[in-house]
Each structure stands twice: as structure tokens, then as C-alpha cells.
Write a structure and sequence with these properties.
The complex is a heterodimer of chains A (162) and B (140). Chain A is mostly helical and 162 residues long. Helices cover 79% and strands 1% of the residues of chain A. Chain A contains 8 helices and 1 strand, in the order H-H-H-H-E-H-H-H-H. Chain B contains 4 helices and 4 strands; from the N terminus they run αβαααβββ. In chain B, strands 2-3-4 form a 3-stranded antiparallel sheet, with helices on one face. The longest helix of chain B has 19 residues. Chain B is elongated, with a radius of gyration of 30 Å. The chains are: A mainly alpha (162), B alpha+beta (140). Strand 1 of chain A pairs antiparallel with strand 1 of chain B.
Chain lengths: 162, 140
């Protein structure tokens, strides 16, 4: 019975959060396959460590570290070959397909440091303190990177909508 | 465009949902709940309890048996051994003080040796016994 409950809990947890974890994993890795490998490894590891549903900040931090580990193991040539396979990061309303594509394109252009903070804060639902823990940076740095990311997007979108 | 405007735009984006194949893969990767190591060291006190039970069983007939009882033809137990056969972890519940208690199911075989009424070979009998034991968990 407990086993069944655990299975249900695991499936419910995946249903609730897999999308946001996958988004971050995709931004931390160079191709969809790597993102899925890192995601699975991080989810299993954090679930085991917590003995059940882990804190989301812990999952994001583990994804971040496992992606770094993977990048160190993967040679540069492989990274270049895989970079062209990047999957879609977002989905939006059908009537806004053009805007969705534009936003995604501009988000991809952001510096990695700004994009990962934006992603954790906005779609990961973390506080700046949690973002700081997940990325191993000071909270003030997390806040300033978020601000810079919003400024950069605002400038680009202002130009596009003129 | 203000911060609220850009955040409203970003809010229309949702992380792309994992495809079915990935979800199936993640569901299949569910970590199996590991059995607590406490079960292993619970063998020690259970074994000690078994030894104690054996030591406390009288090996000879009590001297104070009433004469009319002694006349009964029923075989009299002279020794008993208890073999611990199986220990199973049933899970953790809360006791009346809301403290966690692990329930352990133990299965024993009670081997009882009866003295023969006519002075012949003693008779052995095995009985299966099942017990559920509450074991309090250490809280640190």
C-alpha cells in the first residue's frame, strides 16, 4: 500500500513539476537528450535524498550541478554537434505563436547567467534566496541578473513592437 | 514598457510540456523505497528475547503439582525452543502520544517436547506463532 502511495506521489510530483524542471535542464545543457538524462538523474537523486518529494530549490540546484558535470565529461566537438538539436523551450497560446517564438528567441540570446536566473525566478517559482542557493551565487547577484535580463528583453521587445 | 508589461508577456509563456516518452521514462525511473536498516539491527533484540524466553521455561516438572493434576494422562511439556523464522517490517504508525512506532511482524516456530506418559521416547510438537511487535523509533 505504501509502495503504491509512493508511486502515486512520484507520478503526481512529475505531473506538477516536470515541465519547469525540464525547462531549466534544457537551458543548462546543449541538447534535448542531455537535458533528459540530467533531468532524470537529478530527479531520482533528490527524491532518494529527501526520502520523498524534495524541495524544488534542491532539484534545480542538482540539475545545475549535474549539467556542469556532464559538460565537463563531454568534449567541445560533441557540444557543437549537439547544439543545433535544441528543442522548444516554451509553449504559448496558439494565437500568440509569433510572439511566443520571438520571446523564446530573445530569451535564448540572453547571457547564460541571466537566462538561468530568469528561468528559476519566473518559471521555477523560486525566491532570490533560493535562486542564489541553486546557482551558488549571492542573492544580490541573482536579483541584479534578473533585472538585467528584464531590461534586455524590454529593449528588444520595444524595438520589435515599434 | 514597464517591468509589469514584460512580466505579463513572459507570463504567457509556459514551459514546454515533456513529451509522453520522457514522462514514461521518468515514471519508470521512480526510486524504489528502500527498506530501513533498522530492521537488520532489530534481529539482535529479537534474538535476545528468544534466548531469554528459552531460559525462563522450566525444564523439569514443577514439584508442587497437585496429586489430582499429576494423575491426568495428558502429556506434559518438559522443554520448549522458539525459533525465529521471519521478521517483516509492516510500516510506521503513531502511538497514542503521537510518537512514531515501527510495527514488526515476527513468525516463530515453538518446538515443544512432551514427556511420554509411559516413560518412552519424548514427543516433539511444532507450532507456528505470529506476533506483531511495536518498536519505538529513536528521535534525534
Amino acid at each position: 500500500m505504501a509502495n503504491r502511495d509512493t508511486e502515486q506521489d512520484w507520478n503526481d510530483w512529475l505531473g506538477e513539476h516536470a515541465g519547469r524542471f525540464l525547462l531549466f535542464a534544457r537551458q543548462q545543457t546543449r541538447c534535448g537528450q542531455d537535458a533528459e538524462d540530467v533531468l532524470q538523474e537529478a530527479l531520482v537523486e533528490t527524491w532518494k535524498r529527501a526520502g520523498g518529494r524534495p524541495d524544488n530549490a534542491l532539484v534545480f540546484a542538482t540539475i545545475h550541478r549535474r549539467a556542469i558535470d556532464l559538460a565537463r565529461r563531454t568534449d567541445r566537438r560533441t557540444i557543437r554537434e549537439k547544439a543545433s538539436e535544441a528543442p522548444d523551450l516554451f509553449s504559448g497560446p496558439l494565437e500568440d505563436a509569433e510572439m511566443t517564438a520571438l520571446l523564446e528567441q530573445e530569451i535564448r540570446k540572453l547571457p547564460d547567467a541571466q537566462r538561468e536566473v530568469l528561468s528559476l525566478k519566473f518559471w521555477g517559482g523560486l525566491t532570490f534566496a533560493e535562486v542564489a542557493v541553486a546557482l551558488d551565487i549571492p542573492p544580490g547577484t541573482a536579483a541584479s541578473r534578473y533585472r538585467l535580463a528584464l531590461d534586455a528583453l524590454r529593449q528588444i521587445l520595444s524595438i520589435c513592437t515599434i | 514598457m514597464k517591468d509589469e508589461g514584460i512580466e505579463a508577456l513572459l507570463g504567457r509563456l509556459q514551459p514546454a510540456a515533456p513529451d509522453d516518452a520522457l514522462m514514461a521514462r521518468l515514471r519508470a525511473a521512480r526510486p524504489q523505497p528502500k527498506r530501513s536498516r533498522r530492521v537488520i539491527y532489530l534481529w539482535a533484540p529479537l534474538a535476545a528475547a528468544a534466548v531469554l524466553a528459552i531460559a525462563l521455561i522450566p525444564r523439569d516438572q514443577p514439584a508442587s503439582i497437585a496429586p489430582d493434576m499429576a494423575k491426568v494422562e495428558e502429556p506434559q511439556p518438559v522443554t520448549s525452543l522458539q525459533h525465529l523464522m521471519d521478521v517483516a517490517d509492516l510500516g510506521i504508525v503513531e502511538d497514542e502520544n503521537n510518537m512514531p512506532v515501527r510495527l514488526i511482524r515476527t513468525r516463530w516456530i515453538n518446538e515443544v517436547v512432551y514427556a511420554s506418559a509411559d516413560g518412552g521416547e519424548p514427543v516433539k510438537e511444532g507450532r507456528l506463532r505470529e506476533e506483531v511487535l511495536p518498536v519505538s523509533l529513536p528521535i534525534y
